[in-house]
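User: tokens in, sequence out, please.
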């Protein structure tokens, strides 16, 4: 765990302390009574969250504050870059990265590809993600390899075949 921020503040005469930590995957916001991590954690009420948000926004900026207080389950790309938070190596994602390097593309069905795509970008892979016929594709967009161009040619071929089928069907109308 890496500590990103630790601050104390006062709300309605009561002293609190909060911390924001990360494991590389997400942010962890913790709040304590008093000024020690050994003290009890209060319930994070709306008022308490707003005060923590204001404190973080004042010292670190609103983007980080919003990410830490309201969307801590996923680290924003700009926050990741600013705080130099690397992605931990994820074995499944590393396999996809290797596959893309060798084969150029991968087709996904009903998979959370957003975090995978962000991981690839963070690792420096020039990738393109799009949906086609209900599936999600991620392509290695390295122009030297020509993977994307081959897919475009495949789509052009399908378009030509569909146009031929259309002509045949319209001939019967």
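Assistant: Sequence out:
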């Amino acid at each position: 765990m890496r500590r990103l921020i630790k601050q104390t503040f006062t709300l309605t005469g009561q002293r609190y302390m909060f911390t924001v930590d990360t494991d590389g995957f997400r942010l962890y916001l913790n709040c304590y009574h008093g000024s020690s991590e050994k003290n009890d954690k209060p319930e994070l009420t709306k008022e308490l969250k707003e005060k923590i948000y204001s404190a973080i926004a004042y010292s670190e900026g609103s983007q980080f504050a919003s990410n830490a207080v309201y969307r801590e389950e996923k680290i924003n790309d700009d926050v990741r870059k600013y705080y130099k938070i690397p992605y931990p190596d994820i074995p499944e994602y590393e396999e996809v990265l290797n596959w893309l390097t060798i084969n150029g593309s991968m087709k996904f069905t009903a998979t959370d590809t957003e975090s995978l795509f962000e991981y690839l970008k963070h690792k420096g892979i020039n990738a393109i993600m799009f949906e086609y016929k209900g599936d999600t594709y991620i392509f290695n967009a390295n122009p030297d390899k020509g993977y994307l161009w081959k897919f475009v040619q495949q789509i052009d071929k399908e378009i030509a075949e569909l146009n031929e089928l259309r002509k045949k069907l319209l001939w019967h109308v």
